[in-house]
Amino acid sequence: MTITRSFTLLHSIRTHARWQRFYSSAKLRNIGILAHIDAGKTTTTERMLFYAGKTRTMGEVHRGNTVTDCLTQERERGITICSSAVAFNWQGHKINLLDTPGHIDFTMEVEQSLHAVDGVVVVLDGTSGVEAQTITVWTQAEKHRLPKLVFVNKMDRPDADFNSCVSDLSTKLDAKPVCLQSPLKDEKGNLTIFDVITQQALIWHSASLGREYKKFPLLDKHIADLQDKRYALIDELSGIDDELAQVVISNEGFDQVSNELIQQALRRAVAQRKVVPVLLGSAYKNVGVQRVMDAIIDYLPAPHERNQLYDCFCDDFVGRVFKIIHDKQRGALTLVRVFRGELKKGSRLVTTHNTAEVVSKVYEPLADEYREISGVPAGDVAICAGLKHTVTGDLLTTNASSLKNAQKRLQKTLKLPESDVMTEDSDTEGNAEATLVKEIFATDPQIPDAVYFCSIEPPSLATQNAMEAALKQLQREDPSLRVNYDSVTGQTVLGGMGELHMDIVKSRILTEYKIDVDLGPLQIAYKETIEEPALDSFQVEKEISGSKQSVTITLELLREQNELFSLDKSGENASNLNSLRPRMLHVIRKGALSALERGPRVGGQVVDTQIRLHSITIGRGTADSFVMAAVAQCVQKILTTVGTRLLEPVMALEIVAPSERISAIIADLSRRRATINDVRPKSEHNKVIYVNAPLAELSGYSSVLRSISSGTAGMTMQPCGFSNMNSNDEVRAIQKAQGFE
Ligand SMILES: Nc1nc2c(ncn2[C@@H]2O[C@H](COP(=O)(O)OP(=O)(O)OP(=O)(O)O)[C@@H](O)[C@H]2O)c(=O)[nH]1
To answer: Which residues bind GTP (predicted)?
Structure first.
């Protein structure tokens, strides 16, 4: 080992010892970075890593050398697919930043990382403002009650419009934006940022790649305008924050209010989600990013300022698994947000499903590079190796009784009915506390419905098992990827969020597992539902290896959204159903629900349908597997007899186009069974159309839109549920699904 190398190693060990000793909760920030596709999250994150000294060169999306987009597919396509975690040191604090995907096919990733963060930075493209996916991620962050700040990026572009972005925040997101900065561009397009609180002009030094920036006093011509902006900020905040209001009243005006007091009031207002600070810059041109990093420290909460509900774990460890990734060398790695206790190498923990796990190694997150550390304290994020059974969304605790004890303590403290803490199905509408509790104890993440499916085939029978293993791993990483076996066609079927989603799966199986799979044509994932209730009785008998197997059963199918399976214990059925052992009931339930996986019309999942068991008699010696199959068969028979209707996936579109193109676009949409929800002015020349349309009518729509609008229109779309179809459309859909069209 050379002297230089030993020095470097020593330095890095020392640095790590310091890191681990240094960062108490007050010095930690766990932040998500969210945006519509291409707004500039990855570019902004690259700058943060560079300015924090975590990387020596600045990665660029178009060069495919960014730290956070580390999958081959991300680098090739210039998009984020998997959320990734990076940690860096800024102003004596440690920031764990989760960069998340912007494309609608990967919404699930965003939802999972929000479990792990205490605040979010929402990046807007300064030329487009609030876009469809911004609304989706904003709503997700609201659901998690996360304080936010906004970075209006791409302000170097001539068509960027800061004021329009700020007004979008109030009109489209119902947010209360407070501008902490204001832009000024000179005739060459160079961007100066005015700081509203300190009343300074900030100019970035391009030759140092924006590493340095200077603060200048305002020129006379800007003073009045900036002072008005500062007054407006104080005015807004003192209407929300009593402490600041008192200072304003006692000083009889805004002039004596110090910068510190404004910042303190702002921090309180952000934590209560009453305002959203707005900053601006250009990540690509290296302008403004350090101020976003400062704002993360100044205005977004530290771990101990949130998450008080986890206090019910007392001295026990509790952490939440928000992502599982598969590393070629290290195998499955589990990303855990630690809420209470320390996560150490060698820790023995228990999952929500009561499985014991041992943490063999702990790493510090730096996208695709991992550095081993001895452990992380409460509030921090760790990457763990060695966990074999843990699934995304699991809570990890000290032992099997930790969770139950915590639930009991919480129930007592909050004086909630037991059901609100213990179950996930209880009705807690309107009870914000109970909803929060339910979220914390929810162990299964909400997985969006697949809107497309396609068959997947290995290149040869010999690679079938390897393909299945690869799919299993990918599914552990991305629960929105559905993998099913279709017993009718004998094929493995993938369900997912869109063409890109499936393409990425295929290409990852090739690059990471070296299997060149074939994907069948992409088909729409229709669902099915019954129209009327139906009740029937069946007797199923068979002799297997000389032993008689028999089941006599009466079942009813009802239209019902919430409960999938119920028992009719009224009247004469009560004694029959009461005599069922819980294990047998589990078998019957499993058989019944498996029949809903594949409806009789196009093989779509049967939804909004409840199976009600009236009575069942099981012959002596009948095997569980026979009972399960018999129940499934009976449900399928009722479904076939009563018949089902199709439900089709519907997309919500936002189309922005010049006013003169709007009528042609609407005329085309009306031929696509679309429902126009609203048409609003977007800017001086543009309008935005909000429209819902069936996915089946949108194949190749982006090129159609391009041709109708001569390339002037832009569009975003996202799934927004399933809807009924009329009989003609249904017949056409069935013909298409069966390959007759
Ligand atoms: N002009 C300009 N271009 C930018 C700026 N920031 C990012 N870009 C470009 O915008 C494109 C998208 O940037 P990304 O950083 O990949 O955006 P993203 O939000 O991470 O995108 P996804 O990962 O696909 O969701 C890239 O070509 C960037 O070089 C900016 O400040 N100004």
So the answer is: 35-42, 99-103, 153-156
CA 118 to chain centroid: 15
- Boundary of a domain, candidates 474, 496, 525: 525
For residues 447 and 452, what is the distance between their CA atoms, to the nearest angstrom?
Answer: 14
Which tokens sit at 286?
Answer: 């290296």
Q: Which of 591, 620, 642 is a domain's end point?
A: 642
CATH classification of the domain holding 508 = 3.30.70.870
102 lines ligand 1 (CB under 6 A): yes
* CB 128 less than 6 A from any atom of ligand 1: no
What residues contact residue 28 under an 8 Å CB cut-off, 6+ apart? 93, 94, 95, 96, 302, 303, 379, 380
Bridge partners (DSSP) listed for residue 364: 371
Summarised one tens digit per residue, pLDDT across range 586-645 is 999 999 999 998 899 988 899 999 999 999 999 988 999 999 999 999 999 999 999 999
Spatial separation of the C-alpha atoms in residues 160 and 179, rounded to whole Å: 16
pTM score: 0.73
Are 165 and 200 within one domain? yes
Closest CA to 44 of 143, 118, 153: 153
Statement: residue 10 has pLDDT above 50: no
Closest ligand 1 atom to residue 283 Cα is 31
Full domain range(s) for residue 86: 27-301
Query: In three state form, how does the secondary structure of 670-693 look?
Result: HCCCCEEEEEEECCCCEEEEEEEE
